Amino acid sequence: MFVLIVGAGRVGSAVARSMLASGHQVSVLDEDPLSHERLDAGLDTTWEEAGGRFTVGHGIEIEALVEAGIEQADVFIASTNGDNTNLLISQIAQKKFQVRSVIARVMDPARADWYQEQGLRTISPTKVAIEMFEQALSEV
């Protein structure tokens, strides 16, 4: 499978390395060229030598998405540090490029729920933390 991840922070780079180690083709798009260092971390070689791809650009730019390979993507993951960016680019991937599987990281649980109801797959670390906290309280 071809996986395109926008955002090479801690989450995006960890997911990218995991997907590459699982044998998938992985392309990462990030506006910060220095974020590439996170992709190399823990590898015996460079990200590219291991088979990964890295593109410098902003995820809301169609040209950058195309250069990173969105037209071939089977999976699209939006993991930037901004909910608005993640939601926007996920909708672009889903609607304009018809990517089969699109996942958006959304910190605001209410927005994550609303977009999930509209058909966009979201994950909210905040919501997961709240649910875990509530479960822990019920066990006390």
Automatic annotation (TrEMBL):
<dbReference type="InterPro" id="IPR050721">
    <property type="entry name" value="Trk_Ktr_HKT_K-transport"/>
</dbReference>
<feature type="domain" description="RCK N-terminal">
    <location>
        <begin position="1"/>
        <end position="125"/>
    </location>
</feature>
<dbReference type="Pfam" id="PF02254">
    <property type="entry name" value="TrkA_N"/>
</dbReference>
<keyword id="KW-0813">Transport</keyword>
<dbReference type="InterPro" id="IPR003148">
    <property type="entry name" value="RCK_N"/>
</dbReference>
<protein>
    <submittedName>
        <fullName>TrkA family potassium uptake protein</fullName>
    </submittedName>
</protein>
<dbReference type="GO" id="GO:0005886">
    <property type="term" value="C:plasma membrane"/>
</dbReference>
<dbReference type="GO" id="GO:0015079">
    <property type="term" value="F:potassium ion transmembrane transporter activity"/>
</dbReference>
<keyword id="KW-0406">Ion transport</keyword>
<dbReference type="InterPro" id="IPR006036">
    <property type="entry name" value="K_uptake_TrkA"/>
</dbReference>
<keyword id="KW-0630">Potassium</keyword>
<dbReference type="InterPro" id="IPR036291">
    <property type="entry name" value="NAD(P)-bd_dom_sf"/>
</dbReference>
<keyword id="KW-0633">Potassium transport</keyword>
